[in-house]
Amino acid sequence: MTEQDRLLASLKDSHRGVLATIRRDSRPQVSNVVHTFDPKTKLFRISTTADRAKTRNLRRDPRATYYVPGSDFWKFVVADTAAELTAVAQTPDDAVVDELVEVYREIGGEHPDWDEYRAEMVKEQRLVLRLHVLSLYGK
């Protein structure tokens, strides 16, 4: 197994990380988030809202770095990524809400009321942030 394969494999064991985006003044803006990760496509997916700083920053500049902690302080993976933002959820049965349901299920399992969840995704103006991994490093 190569070092890259080992790092990719380690990402499937966690759903938590810290996202760093670039503010207008070039300083980093960091957010604790939860994610799904597909090692085959090297894609993180994160549910967020249209009004968040990270969303505004990524619309302006799609470069982001994502830090995933390991099992102890000295273990971690850092992914340099290119962000892609879906449209904002418009109706409870649109494709964005369907993807938000997939993200929820992968992180938290089944929701007690999917109709309520779908309506909330539209009300909260949620979207999916997709982070395409360009490179990885870590321990």
UniProtKB/TrEMBL annotation:
The keyword S-adenosyl-L-methionine does not apply. InterPro entries: F420-binding_dom_put, F420H2_bilvrd_red/Heme_oxyg, Pyridox_Oxase_N, Split_barrel_FMN-bd. Keywords: Oxidoreductase. One of its GO terms (molecular function) is coenzyme F420 binding. It is an enzyme of class 1 (oxidoreductase). One of its GO terms (cellular component) is cytosol. NCBIfam families: Rv1155_F420. This is Putative pyridoxine/pyridoxamine 5'-phosphate oxidase.
